[in-house]
Q: What sequence folds into this?
């Protein structure tokens, strides 16, 4: 018996010794950062990199935490369903007195379960959206030099379940977070690092992490099937498409129009070939394969196709077709839809994350009582327009049954005519 107790004592001593050695080797003191405008500027660059605006407008987020806690967060409604074991809590994130608690699908009054759900949400949502919380109330930002580069230290002075924690965000050359180092009350060793590299693109237009690996013994935290989407915005977009007879538009083969009387178009939508004419040029344009395009000058085909003229035709077609068919492009690839309230009206913001000539531009569509677009506000990435309005008016029903606009008016009073608009098969 004595030998057994001695052996147990030796094992305990070794474990404690290993723990002490591990602590002194791996524990890092909290670095001192520089607060101020430069730190806030770095934080804003990080915000832009992760598309914080899209996150703010997101309607629904779904994820799980280590396949144990499951979430569906209706962000704009301040409501999140938290499920684990036999419990489900519909947690009101603004006023938990309005929350509802269920056990085995039976509604109960249990403040302890409510408190557990709130703690789960505070912790588990942080592992999903921490980069988006760097300007939350009760946060302090500072710059720390890490391996010769600027890193962003965020200290939570209040709020959440563990105020006082600090996180040092490591950024790539585009200011996108790739990992962080942790100084938190629940982690006994300072400076433990966690990966933020397994990001997934969401329908709502921003990325979310799917898992994290901690440097502490290689521990992995899985976030499950991560989703973010804008359900109500999609419903509104479908109402617009129905109002403008989008099904007829999809089945329309040929479109003809002009732009401000200076350029004319005939577009074979089925084959995606467009004749683009201006001045003395006519380009038989293949937008998806510009090398196949041909150029005519004064009606004579060029033997050696001028690539600059083809590129000019492509730019013209992208711009001028947009003024004709933009409402029909609400579900194109690379588009994010979100709801906005403009002048007490429900409006649809459409952001182009890719494609076209100027990815990053967004447009807020204002609608009439029948969901037909009557105007939009333009927000261009280059900053030339920041809410500049333009009408979409004088809609016609084409021979093919699609609705298309024929005129636009700008806030300056200028008008843009699309000429004689035709759509047929």
A:
């Amino acid at each position: 018996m004595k030998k057994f107790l001695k052996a147990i004592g030796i094992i305990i001593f070794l474990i404690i010794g290993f723990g002490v050695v591990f602590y002194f080797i791996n524990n890092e003191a909290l670095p001192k950062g520089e607060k101020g405008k430069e730190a806030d500027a770095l934080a804003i660059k990080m915000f832009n990199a992760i598309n914080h605006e899209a996150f703010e407008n997101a309607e629904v987020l779904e994820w799980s935490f280590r396949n144990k806690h499951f979430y569906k967060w209706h962000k704009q409604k301040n409501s999140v369903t938290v499920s684990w074991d036999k419990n489900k809590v519909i947690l009101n994130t603004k006023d938990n007195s309005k929350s509802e608690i269920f056990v085995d699908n039976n509604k109960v009054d249990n403040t302890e379960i409510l408190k557990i759900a709130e703690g789960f949400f505070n912790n588990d949502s942080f592992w999903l959206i921490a980069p988006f919380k760097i300007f939350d109330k009760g946060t302090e930002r500072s710059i720390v030099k890490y391996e010769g580069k600027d890193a962003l230290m965020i200290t939570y002075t209040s709020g959440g379940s563990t105020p006082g924690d600090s996180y040092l965000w490591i950024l790539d050359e585009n200011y996108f977070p790739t990992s962080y180092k942790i100084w938190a009350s629940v982690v006994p060793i300072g400076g433990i690092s966690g990966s933020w590299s397994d990001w997934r693109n969401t329908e709502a237009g921003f990325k979310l992490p799917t898992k994290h690996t901690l440097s502490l013994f290689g521990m992995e935290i899985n976030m499950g099937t991560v989703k973010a989407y804008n359900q109500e915005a999609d419903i509104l977009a479908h109402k617009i498409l129905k109002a403008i007879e989008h099904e007829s538009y999809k089945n329309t083969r040929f479109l003809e129009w002009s732009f401000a009387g200076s350029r004319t178009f005939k577009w074979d939508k089925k084959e995606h070939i467009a004749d683009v004419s201006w001045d003395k040029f006519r380009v038989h344009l293949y937008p998806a394969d510009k090398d196949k395009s041909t150029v005519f000058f004064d009606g004579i085909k060029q033997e050696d196709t001028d690539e600059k003229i083809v590129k000019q035709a492509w730019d013209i077609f992208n711009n001028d077709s947009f003024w004709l068919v933009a409402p029909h492009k609400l579900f194109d690839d690379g588009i994010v839809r979100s709801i906005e309230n403009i002048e007490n009206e429900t409006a649809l913001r459409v952001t182009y994350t890719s494609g076209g000539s100027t990815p990053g531009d967004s447009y807020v569509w204002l609608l009439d009582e029948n969901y037909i677009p009557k105007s939009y506000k333009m927000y261009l990435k280059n900053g030339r327009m920041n809410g500049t309005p333009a009408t979409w008016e004088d809609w016609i029903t084409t021979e093919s049954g699609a609705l298309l606009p024929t005129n636009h008016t700008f806030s300056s009073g200028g008008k843009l005519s699309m000429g004689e608009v035709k759509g047929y098969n």
Q: What stands out?
A: The two ends are 95 Å apart (CA to CA). The longest strand covers residues 139-146. The chain has seven helices and 33 strands.
